[in-house]
Structures are given as structure tokens and as C-alpha cells.
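quick one before i forget lol
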Amino acid sequence: MFARIYRPSKTAMQSGRAKSQHWMLEFEPAMAKRPDPLMGWASTGDTRRQVKLNFDTKDEAVAYAQRHGIAFQVIEARETPRKIKAYADNFAYARKEPWSH
């Protein structure tokens, strides 16, 4: 039994940072998926794949894994640098790119 502890990234479908501030413990798949003979859907007997635990801090997630004897790997989140711009910069005289309209 092996788990990953990570902080999920912000989704591309929204501008907010909801659901990306908590740490997640997710189990690695124990077996590969195989096609179901009747319907053809991908199926597996591994039910741990469905378990995703949320924690407020990385230390809480690590403590949980150690307390329950789960081998884990911590994946640190990369912070993206913010480019703070003003709308008025689009009309600046010293603009590097020409206005395309």
C-alpha cells in the first residue's frame, strides 16, 4: 500500500483557488484496469483507488499516513509567480507589442 500526499493545482476552468489549498492523500493503483467483458468499461478490483482524503496541512497528512502504517511520498506544490498587471498597461505609450486592433 503506497500513497501520494500532494496539494492539487488550480483548475483551468476557473480563476479562483478553491479546492487547491488543502493537502490530499491518494493511494497509488495496486492493479491495472482491464476491460469489462460485458460492457467494455474499464474496471478493477482495487477499491483504494477511489479513496481521497483531504487534510488542512501537510503535517496532518503525514501524521495520518505514519499512524496507519502507509508508505507515502510527499509531492511539494510549485507556486506559480503572479504577473500583476493593470488594464491601463494595454494602452501605454511604451508598450513592447503593437496594438493589434
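fyi Strands lie at 2-6, 23-27, 34-35, 42-43, 52-55, 71-75.
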